[in-house]
Amino acid sequence: MSLRSYLLIMIVATLVCWGAFCFVIFSINPDTTNWVGFLLFYISLFLAVSGTAAILGFVVRFIALKRELAAQAVREAFRQSFLFSVLSVAILLMLAHNLFSWLNLFLLVVGLSVLEYFLITYTNSREQVTNNIEDNISKL
Q: Can you state the percent helix, strand and coil of the chain, rounding each to 5?
């Protein structure tokens, strides 16, 4: 898949997700809905925020910084947009259930930061193993 087609698909999918979120906002009454209405709200918000953050993250990494390959920039932007969306929706869920406190927010941020660190180190170690295998094959 080319970079242009990826960006076009992501932009269209993100616009569809924002449209679905707006539809949920204007058509579902939170006072009378059941868990399905809230599930639709949180899922559509999660997908819309994730797509928007992925596109913005890619633009900042690839176009503004010009330091990485496109595939790496896409992968990192999507991973971090996913974690940012989890943080956003988790904060809204905590607020909805009166569980929001600075301690809970701190623990959530620390947990997501540890997960991001694990994902970064796992990716780096996997790349090192792949490079070592390629070096050993080229020596044969």
A: 85, 0, 15
d(CA 42, CA 99): 17
pLDDT digits (tens, 9 = 90+) for 76-85: 899 999 999 9
Q: In whole angstroms, what is the distance from residue 49 CA to residue 43 CA?
A: 10
- Residue 6 CA to chain centroid, in angstroms? 16
Q: Which residue has the higher pLDDT, 119 or 140?
A: 119
Distance CA 100, CA 44 (A): 22
What is the b/e burial string over 28-43, where b = at least 16 CB atoms within 10 angstroms of the residue's CB? eeeeeeeeeeeebbbe
C-alpha angle 77-125-131 in degrees, rounded to nearest 5:
100
CA angle 61, 6, 42 (to 5 degrees): 85
